[in-house]
Amino acid sequence: MTIEAIDNIETAYELSKKYDVEMPIVYNVYNILFNNLQPKEALYKLMTRQAKHED
Q1: What whole-number distance in Å separates Cα of residue 2 and Cα of residue 49?
Q2: With a threshold of 0.85, does the pTM exceed it?
Q3: Per-residue pLDDT for 3 more than 90?
Q4: Contact 16/6 with Cβ under 8 angstroms?
């Protein structure tokens, strides 16, 4: 299976940090690829994060 834009995940992650934009999917994919986060754990983190209003 091929992941689109896998080459850009580091850039998206760094830009989200630089501009203080919360991007939980990007954070979790980055951590799966570069910090050995288990996909099941990433999914759990995404599914159990506190809901909030988004503009």
Answers
A1: 27
A2: no
A3: no
A4: no
